[in-house]
Design brief:
single chain; mainly alpha; three-stranded antiparallel beta sheet; elongated
């Protein structure tokens, strides 16, 4: 059966009704409704789409993109970072971590995080050192690993209490840290040493 929709309140009434049963508006010029069922609900909002001009960056962690030197630098730096929390020195049965023994090793802590962050950003494709940067990525890695090596070597040699203080011995953490610092800096520094010797 055909029906008419009230132009004022949208109440649907049977065709031929003189006035709207809801508000009393005359229905002589009202439009015909196809059926008395309510209109379908609006579709849910769709997910935002990205235009072709601004593609969504894809993050993929690809270790294969790292070269041999970068793997040595990254692996050595990661082991060095972990070793800062290990026991470096022992005295009367008590162990002291590197960070507890020497406060300046927090510089190594921060530099190691920065170097690992740089390598992780490159591997995941999120960020790379710009070509316009004053320092290249290899120079940044060399400076960071050299700072770490020098500070770790100083911390290794200067036992807590000084040389006159007996009874303080090295523990495994100090040896792990020193070896890791050497592994991280060697592949970057050795070619420069060889190039200077060749001159």
């Amino acid at each position: 059966m055909a029906s008419i929709a009230c132009p004022n309140c949208q109440t649907v009434a049977p065709e031929g009704t003189a006035s709207c049963p809801g508000c009393g508006t005359p229905l002589s010029g009202a439009t015909h409704a196809a059926s008395s069922t309510p209109p379908p609900a609006a579709p849910p909002p769709s997910a935002p789409t990205f235009s072709a001009g601004s593609p969504k960056p894809q993050v993929k962690f690809d270790l294969a993109s790292l070269g041999h030197v970068d793997r040595l630098v990254g692996g050595g730096t990661l082991v060095l970072f972990i070793s800062l929390f290990l026991t470096w020195f022992s005295y009367a049965g008590f162990g002291i971590s590197g960070l507890s023994a020497h406060g300046y090793l927090y510089v190594v802590f921060i530099v190691a995080i920065a170097l690992l962050g740089l390598l992780a950003a490159e591997v995941s494709g999120v960020w790379k050192v710009p070509a316009s940067s004053a320092l290249g990525r290899d120079q940044i890695l060399l400076i960071g690993t050299t700072i770490n090596f020098v500070l770790v070597l100083i911390a290794f040699l200067l036992k807590p209490g000084g040389y006159g203080f007996h009874g303080v011995g090295w523990s495994y953490g100090a040896f792990v840290a020193l070896a890791a610092a050497v592994v991280a800096v060697f592949p970057l520094g050795w070619p420069i040493i060889q190039a200077r010797r060749g001159k």
